[in-house]
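Task 17 of the worksheet. Students: predict the tertiary structure of the chain below and write it out as structure tokens. Keep your answer in the requested format; marks are given for formatting as well as content.
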Amino acid sequence: MRASGILRSWNEERGFGFVAPERGGPALFVHISAFPRDGSKPVVGETVSFELGRGPDGRMQAVKVARSMVGGDATPRRLASSAPRRSGSSLLGTVVLMLAVLVAGGWGYRHYKDSNRQQRADVPVAPREQSAAPIQSFRCDGRAHCSQMTSCAEATWFINNCPNTQMDGNGDGVPCEQQWCMAPGAR
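Model answer:
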């Protein structure tokens, strides 16, 4: 059976307070765990409904607390001016802080990019040499057999740089002699 009462005291640091039952009687202990976990904090003077239960010490206490003002501000109107509203100000502070970080980050990135561009402009660039053969880049990707290669250059690079290749059957250091790296005049 639910009863109603008013939260008469609350200790925020320790997470408990006392509810004065509407029908009279001694004040009942209430723990923060009895309140709904909706992010709002209990406010002294607010009307609550609760069930009676026994605490670990066997004494009666308020459990399964529900606030009377569902869907609205749980702060009673007569206490609205004296109750601090931290949730809105902390949200505003977070937004302002995020904007400041973004602006500072953008400025820092732009400054870094400009200084990097200036440094590159100060360094003389040597002309590139033109090579007769195009530069090919290979990487060890697990291929180990001649049938997986596309040229003698690729097979040679793999046998010299990658482990577990099986392309030099006679052990002379020349890979894929049957498919890619034929001796001159053998064809």
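Marker's comment: The radius of gyration is 39 Å. Residues 2-81 form a domain with the OB fold (Dihydrolipoamide Acetyltransferase, E2P) fold (CATH 2.40.50.140).
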